[in-house]
Structure formats: C-alpha cells, structure tokens
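hey
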C-alpha cells in the first residue's frame, strides 16, 4: 500500500479512537446535564444507556458484513454520517423520545466506526499491526483523559448541546476528508453464525461471555452513573461548580490509571498468563471500588484508582476468548453480543434501582458486577476448552 494511503488511514484511525474514548468517558457528565434540561428520571437515564449500548452492539455485528460487500471507504463514510446525524439530533433534541432515537444513532455510529478502524489497520499496516493497535488504544485513552476537562471548561459558557453539535460539525470535515483522499481497501473477518451453537456448548466460552458481560456492566455503570452518584453525596457543603470540577478530575485520573494499566499489562502479559491477569485485576477492581464506597464522602478521589484495575479486563478477556476458539471472528461476535447485553441491561437495572433506593443504592450494584466477574474468573481454564480438542 502507498505511503499516502497509510497516512490517511492513520488519520481516520486516530480520529475515531480519540472521539470514541472521549464520548465514552463523558456520557455520564452529559447525561447528568440532560437530566436537568429535558427532565429525566433515573429509570429513563438507564434506558438511554441501554439504547446507546444496543446501537453500538448492532453496528459491531452488522457492519462487518456490509464492509465486505460495499467496501471500506463507503462504509466508513456511512458510519461517519450516521454518527454525525446522531450527534446533531441529540444536541437539538427537545424531548426524551427524540433524544433516545438520536442517542442510539451515536452508539451505532461509534460501533460502526470501530469496526471500520479495526479493518483499516491490517490493510494499511500489515507488518505493524501490534504497534498500530497499541497506538489506537493510547489515543482512545487520551480522549478519555481530555474530554472531561474540555467538557467541564465548556460548561462555563455553553451547554451540553453545544458539545454535541460541535462534534457533529467536525464530522462534516471528516466525511469530506474520507471522500476525497486515497483510501485503503480492506475486509472484516466474517462471523460464522453456525459456529455460535458449538461455542455456546463450550463451558469455557460461556465463562468468557459472562466474565465480559459483568465487566462491561461495571465499566458502563461507572462512566455513566458516577457523576449523579457523587452529586448525591454529602461532600461537606462544596459548591456545585467545585463538585463538577471534582467529577471531571476524577474521570480524567481514572483514565490516566486506565492507560497506565494497559501499558503495564502489555509488558506483564509476556510473563503472566491471561487467566492470572483476569483473576488479579478482577479481584483488585472489586476491592478498590469497595474501599472507595466506604470512604466516598471523605476521599472520593479513591474511585480514580479503579481505572488501573478496569484497564486490562476487557482486552485480556477478549484475547482469552479468541485464543480458545477455532473461529476467532465468531468468538469476537459472541463477545460483542455478551458485552452489549451486559452494558445495556446494567444501565436499565441501575436506573430502576436508583429510582427505588437512591443514586447510592443503584451505583453500588457495580460491586455486585465486579464480585460476580471475579468468581467467574476462578473457573476459567484455557486447557479445558472443548473447541481445541
């Protein structure tokens, strides 16, 4: 592939990852503002999280087939258009129903662009795939770190609507860029639906699915519901602005620890097997979040430390699942389905529980998700996978 095409592919990849990381880590901040503006209750808040996850999961499943059929450029443009419309419509939405519909488009667009960017790397950088995937994760983490601070600054003179409309405007430039530059052609590994059934009969694959279901449940719950939870606490009479500054700082620190954790495990993975990493980090996340709850009002910054333990759980669990399978593409499809179910249902559940028992009651379900994930990790043993027999 020509150098020019590789550079254009890299630009698209980095943009996609930066936006994805930033939007993922600021959904809770934005939804907290939307709650006041449009008038959401916590169950509707949870429904929005569910809708986003459904859109993301559907795109992850559908766009692989469509990219093989229509080509990478067309489907990347289509994904960018969908996400741009989603951001614009969400920013302009005046009712809950419109907000829900357009927010699902954001989730769908992010999932679709994720599929496209994953297809770009092997084609544009066949000999540097590892480097590029690590770079992509680094840029994703950078978006997670910077966006809460950008959003907190923006709130001093504009609303959450300006934030989403601004991102929509940015997509116009991105669509024009993809349309006119030399762009790589690539394929996404297809999912074999017939392979789902034997995988679902494999105990180890089922353990992987439930491990990641609970992991995504915990992670989605944290990024979406932490702002409303922290605002519900007695923080010694802090002003509203001081609490918002604290939330942005904690989420940014969470992301810094998240990046450090991924870099550290990238080194440790050569010395420690995946099962041990999942056990250690799932136990660490359970203990860290549990301690943070105990001292939430005295030292809320402890929650940021959870980012270190959350960091590697999804990629390590995914690697474990694809390694034990004879069909990695299909295994990845199952993993996305389980993750989408986990994130979506967790949003609904926490929303309803928060309505019944308050924000602290709903948010505390994260400990249940993490404890379940840790217990499951103890049963995961690669050598017992029936698919490798």
């Amino acid at each position: 592939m020509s150098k020019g095409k590789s550079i254009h592919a890299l630009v698209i990849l980095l943009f996609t990852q930066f936006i994805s990381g930033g939007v993922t880590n600021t959904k809770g901040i934005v939804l907290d503002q939307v709650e006041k503006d449009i008038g959401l209750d916590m169950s509707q808040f949870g429904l929005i999280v569910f809708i986003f996850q459904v859109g993301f999961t559907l795109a992850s499943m559908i766009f692989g087939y469509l990219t093989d059929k229509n080509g990478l450029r067309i489907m990347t443009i289509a994904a960018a258009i969908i996400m741009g419309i989603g951001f614009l419509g969400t920013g302009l939405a005046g009712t809950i129903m419109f907000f829900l519909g357009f927010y699902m488009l954001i989730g769908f667009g992010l999932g679709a662009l994720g599929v496209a960017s994953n297809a770009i790397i092997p084609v544009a950088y066949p000999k540097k795939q590892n480097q590029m995937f690590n770079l992509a994760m680094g840029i994703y983490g950078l978006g997670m770190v910077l966006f809460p601070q950008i959003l907190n600054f923006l709130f001093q003179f504009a609303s959450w609507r300006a934030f989403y409309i601004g991102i929509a405007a940015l997509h116009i430039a991105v669509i024009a860029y993809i349309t006119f530059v030399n762009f790589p052609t690539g394929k996404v590994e297809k999912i074999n639906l017939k392979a789902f059934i034997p995988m679902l009969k494999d105990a180890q694959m089922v353990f992987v699915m439930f491990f990641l279901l609970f992991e995504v449940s915990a992670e989605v719950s944290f990024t979406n519901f932490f702002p409303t939870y922290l605002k519900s606490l007695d923080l010694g009479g802090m002003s509203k602005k001081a609490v918002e500054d604290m939330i942005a700082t904690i989420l940014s620190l969470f992301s810094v620890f998240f990046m450090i954790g991924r870099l550290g495990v990238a080194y440790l993975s050569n010395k420690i097997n995946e099962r041990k990493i999942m056990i250690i980090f799932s136990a660490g996340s359970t203990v860290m979040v549990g301690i943070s709850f105990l001292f939430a009002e005295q030292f809320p910054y402890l929650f940021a430390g959870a980012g270190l333990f959350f960091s590697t759980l999804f990629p390590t669990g995914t690697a474990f699942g694809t390694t034990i399978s004879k069909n990695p593409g299909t295994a990845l499809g199952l993993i996305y389905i389980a993750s989408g179910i986990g994130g979506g249902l967790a949003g609904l559940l926490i929303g309803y529980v928060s309505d019944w028992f308050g924000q602290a009651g709903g948010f505390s379900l994260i400990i249940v998700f993490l404890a379940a994930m840790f217990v499951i990790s103890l049963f995961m043993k690669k050598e017992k996978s029936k698919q490798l027999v």
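The mean pLDDT is 81. Residues 3-39 form the longest helix (37 residues).
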